[in-house]
């Protein structure tokens, strides 16, 4: 019998839980609930109770029955429930702490620790009972706020032993017949998360320091978009570089608007939560669909990048079979998709989070190799190019806009920080660093290769040099490690929307296989890396990074926003709409002409 069946949920494949429900239920009935961090999973070592089995009802009334609670019912029915966990996997660079490594390598250690903790409680309680001070074993550890209130009303707390255990308060008097039990207020509800019985999802991040948040932000912003910045100068001219700081400032400001939206309510933790708070359930669904479409399109770009990079190393590779001819690009795109497929099938999704660090390492290595070829291998830097090319300027706009497509992750980073007031510094630091990095790489790449600059500057690097081979290898490793991380949130959102009887590992494998196959088909149909990226930057980045944050902020803060901020938000919305229309039209027209 598996763990969910022991808890009374054997007939459910996906279970929506929140730690605050466990804490409240423990306060009501005196049950024992292991303490855990907000937003994390709690392993139960006690037998299941009626509250555990009947999970659809939330509030307990005096006769033992439970009355439904409207706010929890609304929250349980919202889609997607897996957003925070899946996006945390994609963005969070794992810390090298040994405890995290042990937990990822052996998830059963947490269950073993819970059993040991239960045995220790019973032993210490027996020892104290022999001295004449009996303590109830079923009394839970209360939150600090509730503990201080009960301790003040009931007298000094009693400790279990001389160890540094939290003090326990005396149990409150039992309620009268027919009287409802009102739970004590909690400081902040933990983020709800999704539990599955066929995949192992990591809990939401809750203990993120300032340095870790900076590393996570750089990991999100420094992606494959850096490969096309030199091509942006070729398309739009040198004056197109003005777009980098302009879009960077606007995106940084809208990132701060998302922070203000989260601060407006303790129930907001993610971007879909912001959409729901601003425009209701339809706003949540719209924001979620846009974010998932952006992730899906990034998966298409990874397949195209893999095909381009490998075909540049092996240009003569091809395959003719049964009347079907595959050139080098198509052959390697299909081959790499098949190689990536097992990572998409993983049951233990905690292992995927350790691949996210590959993005920072790969991007840094490619930058070093570019300057190594320009300075150390004699390629040199040669001034040239046009000042402004209005015809292809919208393509450069889309390429530069794609570089700042990290807003879907910023609410997760902010919600997971221990010291939230430092988020403003984290965001400013990340945007300043990536703006200088993007501008420096764009200038260096175009000065090295001039008008012959290709959609990825790594394709221009001479193959006979060692740093060129290293750079090509990194451009292969980067999408290979990030593809599963990018596509997993999309797959989870589809799987949790399926009927409960279809939420099995076999159905999940079919969904993920179909997603991978569809990205390959789209990538082979539109094998234009730079133009597809410009289209993504023009549509999704302008929508997610500029239009939606301002619209949600004005809706949530209506009536309390100063006039200058209203004017600024409306200006950014209009700018985003204009850039989206012009950039998408130019990108699509160039793809059609080819």
From TrEMBL:
<comment type="similarity">
    <text>Belongs to the amino acid/polyamine transporter 2 family. Amino acid/auxin permease (AAAP) (TC 2.A.18.5) subfamily.</text>
</comment>
<feature type="transmembrane region" description="Helical">
    <location>
        <begin position="563"/>
        <end position="585"/>
    </location>
</feature>
<feature type="transmembrane region" description="Helical">
    <location>
        <begin position="279"/>
        <end position="304"/>
    </location>
</feature>
<feature type="transmembrane region" description="Helical">
    <location>
        <begin position="425"/>
        <end position="450"/>
    </location>
</feature>
<keyword id="KW-1133">Transmembrane helix</keyword>
<feature type="compositionally biased region" description="Low complexity">
    <location>
        <begin position="133"/>
        <end position="151"/>
    </location>
</feature>
<keyword id="KW-0472">Membrane</keyword>
<feature type="region of interest" description="Disordered">
    <location>
        <begin position="1"/>
        <end position="91"/>
    </location>
</feature>
<feature type="compositionally biased region" description="Basic and acidic residues">
    <location>
        <begin position="1"/>
        <end position="12"/>
    </location>
</feature>
<feature type="transmembrane region" description="Helical">
    <location>
        <begin position="532"/>
        <end position="556"/>
    </location>
</feature>
<feature type="transmembrane region" description="Helical">
    <location>
        <begin position="239"/>
        <end position="258"/>
    </location>
</feature>
<dbReference type="Pfam" id="PF01490">
    <property type="entry name" value="Aa_trans"/>
</dbReference>
<feature type="transmembrane region" description="Helical">
    <location>
        <begin position="470"/>
        <end position="492"/>
    </location>
</feature>
<protein>
    <recommendedName>
        <fullName>Amino acid transporter transmembrane domain-containing protein</fullName>
    </recommendedName>
</protein>
<keyword id="KW-0813">Transport</keyword>
<feature type="region of interest" description="Disordered">
    <location>
        <begin position="127"/>
        <end position="184"/>
    </location>
</feature>
<feature type="compositionally biased region" description="Pro residues">
    <location>
        <begin position="168"/>
        <end position="184"/>
    </location>
</feature>
<keyword id="KW-0812">Transmembrane</keyword>
<feature type="transmembrane region" description="Helical">
    <location>
        <begin position="504"/>
        <end position="526"/>
    </location>
</feature>
<feature type="transmembrane region" description="Helical">
    <location>
        <begin position="387"/>
        <end position="404"/>
    </location>
</feature>
<feature type="transmembrane region" description="Helical">
    <location>
        <begin position="324"/>
        <end position="345"/>
    </location>
</feature>
<feature type="compositionally biased region" description="Low complexity">
    <location>
        <begin position="31"/>
        <end position="48"/>
    </location>
</feature>
<keyword id="KW-0029">Amino-acid transport</keyword>
<feature type="compositionally biased region" description="Acidic residues">
    <location>
        <begin position="49"/>
        <end position="61"/>
    </location>
</feature>
<feature type="transmembrane region" description="Helical">
    <location>
        <begin position="352"/>
        <end position="375"/>
    </location>
</feature>
<feature type="domain" description="Amino acid transporter transmembrane">
    <location>
        <begin position="211"/>
        <end position="587"/>
    </location>
</feature>
<dbReference type="InterPro" id="IPR013057">
    <property type="entry name" value="AA_transpt_TM"/>
</dbReference>
<dbReference type="GO" id="GO:0005886">
    <property type="term" value="C:plasma membrane"/>
</dbReference>
<dbReference type="GO" id="GO:0006865">
    <property type="term" value="P:amino acid transport"/>
</dbReference>
């Amino acid at each position: 019998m598996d763990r969910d069946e022991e808890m009374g949920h054997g007939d459910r494949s996906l279970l929506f839980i929140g730690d605050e429900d466990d804490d409240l239920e423990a306060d009501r009935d005196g049950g024992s609930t292991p303490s855990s961090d907000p937003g994390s999973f709690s392993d139960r070592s006690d037998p299941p109770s009626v509250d555990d089995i009947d999970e659809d009802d939330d509030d307990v009334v005096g006769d033992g029955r439970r009355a439904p609670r409207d706010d929890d019912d609304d929250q349980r029915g919202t889609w997607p429930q897996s957003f925070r966990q899946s996006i945390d996997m994609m963005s969070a660079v794992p810390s090298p702490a040994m405890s995290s490594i042990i937990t990822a390598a052996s998830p059963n250690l947490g269950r073993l620790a819970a059993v040991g903790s239960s045995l220790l409680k019973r032993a210490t309680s027996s020892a104290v009972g022999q001295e004449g001070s009996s303590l109830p074993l079923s009394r839970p550890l209360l939150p600090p706020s509730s503990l201080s209130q009960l301790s003040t009303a009931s007298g000094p707390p009693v400790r279990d032993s001389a160890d540094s255990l939290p003090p326990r308060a005396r149990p409150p008097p039992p309620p009268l017949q027919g009287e409802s039990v009102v739970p004590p207020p909690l400081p902040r509800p933990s983020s709800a998360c999704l539990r599955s019985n066929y995949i192992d999802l990591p809990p939401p991040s809750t203990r993120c320091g300032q340095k870790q948040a900076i590393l996570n932000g750089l990991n999100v912003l420094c992606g494959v978009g850096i490969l096309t910045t030199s091509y942006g100068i070729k398309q739009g001219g040198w004056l197109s570089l003005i777009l980098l700081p302009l879009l960077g400032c606007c995106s940084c400001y809208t990132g701060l608007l998302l922070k203000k939206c989260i601060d407006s309510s303790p129930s907001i933790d993610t971007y879909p939560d912001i959409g729901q708070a601003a425009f209701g359930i339809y706003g949540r669904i719209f924001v979620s669909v846009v974010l998932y479409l952006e992730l899906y399109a990034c998966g298409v770009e990874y397949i195209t990048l893999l095909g381009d990079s490998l075909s540049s190393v092996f240009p003569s590779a091809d395959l003719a079979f049964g009347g079907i001819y595959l050139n080098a690009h198509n052959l390697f795109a299909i081959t790499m998709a098949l190689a990536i497929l097992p990572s998409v099938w993983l049951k233990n999704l905690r292992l995927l989070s350790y691949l996210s660090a590959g993005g920072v390492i790969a991007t840094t290595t490619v930058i070093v190799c570019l300057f190594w070829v320009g300075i150390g291998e004699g390629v040199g830097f040669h001034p040239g190019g046009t000042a402004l090319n209005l015809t292809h300027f919208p393509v450069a706009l889309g390429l530069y806009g794609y570089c700042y497509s990290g807003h879907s992750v910023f609410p997760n980073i902010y919600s997971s920080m221990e010291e939230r007031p430092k988020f403003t510094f984290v965001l400013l630091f990340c945007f300043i660093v990536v703006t200088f990095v993007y501008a420096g790489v764009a200038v260096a790449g175009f000065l090295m290769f001039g008008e012959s600059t290709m959609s990825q500057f790594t394709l221009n690097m001479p193959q006979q040099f060692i740093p060129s081979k290293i750079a090509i290898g990194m451009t292969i490793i980067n999408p290979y490690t990030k593809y599963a991380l990018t596509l997993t949130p999309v797959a989870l959102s589809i799987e949790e929307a399926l009927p409960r009887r279809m939420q099995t590992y076999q159905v999940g494998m079919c969904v993920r296989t179909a997603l991978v196959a569809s990205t390959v088909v789209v990538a082979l149909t539109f094998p234009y890396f730079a133009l597809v990226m410009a289209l993504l930057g023009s549509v999704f980045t302008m929508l997610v990074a500029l239009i939606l944050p301002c619209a949600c902020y004005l809706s949530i803060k209506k009536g309390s926003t100063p006039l200058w901020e209203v004017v600024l938000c409306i200006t950014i919305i209009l700018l985003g709409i204009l850039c989206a229309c012009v950039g998408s039209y130019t990108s699509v027209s160039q793809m059609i002409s080819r």
